Amino acid sequence: MELKALRDRVPQLIGTLVASTDGLLIAHDLPPNIEPAGMAALTAAQLSLSHRLAATANGGGFHEVVVHGEGGDVVIYAVGWTASLTVLTGPGANIGRLHLESRPAARTIADQLAAVAPEAAPTPTPNPK
User: pLDDT by residue (tens digit) across 78-125?
Assistant: First the structure.
C-alpha cells in the first residue's frame, strides 16, 4: 500500500494516516503508541482550521500544513476534497525530501479514493464565457 511504501522511502518517517475530512479513519501505518482513530479526529480538526485560515488569509485553497514539534514534525496534506494524508516524522527529518515523496503520494491516494467513491470527487464547474 502507498502508506508503507512512503515510510520505506523517507528516512525518519515514523507513521502515516489517511482520514476523511470528518475525522473517520481510512487507513494507517502508525506506531502502536499512537491511537489511529484519535489521530484521525485531530487531523480532521487541523485540516478544517487550515482550510479556513487559507481561505480567510488569501482566498485560496489549502494544500498542506507543517507543525514543527520538539520530538518531530506532523505534516498534513489535502487529499482531494474529501480526505487528508498525515505524515509523522522524528526529529531532524528532511522536510524537503518529505514533501518530494508525500505530495505525489497524496495525489495517488486522492486518485484511489476517487476511483472507489467517484461521487465524492468534486464535479468540475463549467467555464462561463
Answer: 998 889 999 999 998 999 999 999 999 999 999 998 888 755 444 443
pLDDT for 2:
86
Dist CA 31 CA 49 (whole Å): 26
d(CA 10, CA 20): 24
Q: Which helix (H) or strand (E) holds 48?
A: helix 36-58
Dihedral angle of Cα 121, 86, 75, 15, to the nearest 10 degrees: -150
Question: In this prediction, what percent of the chain has a pLDDT beyond 70?
Answer: 91
Distance, in Å, from the CA atom of 121 to the CA atom of 45, rounded to the nearest integer, reads 21
> 113 with 21: CB under 8 angstroms?
no
* 8 A C-beta contact, residue 3 and residue 16: yes
